[in-house]
């Protein structure tokens, strides 16, 4: 056990034994570091871990406090084990059809959307954003259709660059390319650095659209084992880089979809250094970056990039404006290749949408909205896990991400996720079954559930039904 894990475990024990009660403040990082003769970084890591477990919550400029739901969090199911490693060979892809089949079956508004990839649209200030769009479009310079061609509206790129700056990252506005959502950014990056037949590293499990993109481009996938809390296994990745010489890695370093895992900073730095050693570009999908549940943002791997190898992709789709299709990429040394590909595939991104979001960011208020959104999602996760603990049978294991809006559930051995998906649909519930996240159709007993709709009163009864279906399949 590492030092920070031992410290976190000791504090969790004090909470379990009632020594630390809800509302109690943990010792400050400086105090804990002095008393226990460990570095402040170790204490921080321990506190982050407790925060990710829902046991403590940080309050700005005040410290870490035991949460009201700590006792319930301690009673929650254990973390998934992910016992079966992915195949060590690269895989030719044939999953797209299954992904479409599952997604198309789950699109109806009548279903309880536990399998949805989207948070509830009710969480976004869409009416106010619409008014902002109306006024910014009225003032739109007719020449904007020419001036704002790729790389995109300069005032929007400046606002994005300023947000990087707040994180201590120097990403000039000229190094940013505006795209139609993050998905276009990711696809352009993939096209910029690969040719048909190349191998690309993905996490295991991974976001299904990455697998579909690889399949469409006739690329091979190399899946690398991924820890449910700390992300991709760097030792396994190093072996893959040595043996397969892949042309790119497509990863999510924070709030990974579907697991919710986040790599600690030191691991992100080690990842960037490892990839630099092999000169392998990283396509970093960071769409959930703004949805952290604690008080501080997780830096992307891009923050440690000294060689321009990291292509950082994100968007406003998950944090502000779903449906506006405004995303971006900071492609490092691949900027020109990505911008040219963007010009030849979709020319540019909708000018009204770019202007509306730029006006919104310039006006201020984005951070206020984000603070509310993060608090809501953190509360929804606590409620969701409480319901899940109550209704799911023993033997289920679940992740407890520190951001985003997904949890990954490992079902008891023998329960088939695809069969459960079909049975759940017949009860009006969608879930996302494990095999759609895997190039080799693994994770037969894994499911991804969306807690971003927990305000929907159908959630509790749906989880009760799902629990019964799981129990009956055991
Ligand atoms: C992990 C991940 N990456 C990228 C995307 C696509 O983002 P956008 O809607 O901005 O294209 C999604 C959307 O579901 C996603 O879940």
TrEMBL record:
Q: Which organism is it from?
A: Montanilutibacter psychrotolerans
Q: Where is the HTH gntR-type domain?
A: 1-69
One annotated GO molecular function is:
DNA-binding transcription factor activity
Q: What is this protein called?
A: PLP-dependent aminotransferase family protein
Record's keyword annotation contains Transcription regulation: yes
Q: Known InterPro entries for this protein?
A: Aminotransferase_I/II_large, HTH_trans_reg/aminotransferase, PyrdxlP-dep_Trfase, PyrdxlP-dep_Trfase_major, PyrdxlP-dep_Trfase_small, Tscrpt_reg_HTH_GntR, WH-like_DNA-bd_sf, WH_DNA-bd_sf
Q: Which UniProt keywords apply?
A: Aminotransferase, DNA-binding, Pyridoxal phosphate, Transcription, Transcription regulation, Transferase
Q: What is the lineage of its organism?
A: Bacteria, Pseudomonadati, Pseudomonadota, Gammaproteobacteria, Lysobacterales
Q: Name one Pfam family in it.
A: GntR
Stored PROSITE patterns: HTH_GNTR
| Family named by the database record | In the C-terminal section; belongs to the class-I pyridoxal-phosphate-dependent aminotransferase family.
- Asked if the Swiss-Prot or TrEMBL record annotates the protein with the keyword Transcription, the reply is yes
PANTHER family with a match to the protein in the record: HTH-TYPE TRANSCRIPTIONAL REGULATORY PROTEIN GABR (PTHR46577), TRANSCRIPTIONAL REGULATORY PROTEIN (PTHR46577:SF2)
Which SMART domains did the record assign?
A: HTH_GNTR
